What does this fold into?
Amino acid sequence: MVSGAVFAGCAAGLIAALLHFWFVQGLILTGEEFESGARVHFAAPAEGHSHDHGAAAADGAPADAVAADGAEAGHDHASHEHGVADGGFDAKRDLLTVAFTVLIYVAYAFILVAGFGAAAAAGLRIGPLQGLLWGIGGYAAFQLAPAMGLPPELPGSVAADLGARQVWWWATAGFTALGLLGLGYGRKVWVFVLAGAALALPHVIGAPVLDGYYGVAPPELAAAFTARVLGVGLVAWSVLGWVAGHFWAKAD
Amino acid sequence: MKTMTSVKTLSGSLAQAAGSIMAVMAIGVTLMFVAGHAQSATLHDAAHDMRHATGFPCH
It folds into this structure.
């Protein structure tokens, strides 16, 4: 039970880390430049809409070129000129990210396999297919449903009180997991009704939000970050469930 | 591995199975809390990028 969970967690965590550096890390670093003020969104509208005042001023020439590329290309262009956001490599920071990503997927795996244990105790068979479904369900509970109220934040975003968000986050994960289990394994109509209510309840109550928008990062950047985070999560959770299901069936 | 056999050979007492299931669940939730939600500054900085990238409420 435990060794299968550790193995599945490591496999999913390593894949998540690989995809993180492929899709997400560059956006985090760029977001931090806006967070720290190294770059400012719409800082110099009078000078050819350049998104990178410093680089344009240093080179003299490229301001027009950046503006001509349009907004999205302008970001890439600017970050290359800046020389940090896309290629930044910090060995200690990146190794810690890999380690903690593996750790968090091992944690997910323990929770998932505990669920397998409960299912098996109830006489249900768990194999790779069930594992995959459970993995996708875990993704919905631990990433997708909380993201409906608290979208994954790019550094540079501003959000409501941390404690309140954490409470809502955990409650949403728990209610979503219970709701999905009720839908999947319930036998009676009242179970389905309760399950639907459990899925809806956190969103009826609503996540803690601020009274306005204070983020300093460009919306395109934050949108790309959130979408990619959710995509990477789906892949990693699917791997997690599938591998854990394999191990569970093999140990049977 | 002892927990595994106790969970899977359901001939053993159901209470025993429930115990090991709860234990594994508790380890997972604790690990998740420490890695994802605990607010110690050191932990926060070390886990920072992962926390953002898994959508945990970070700071």
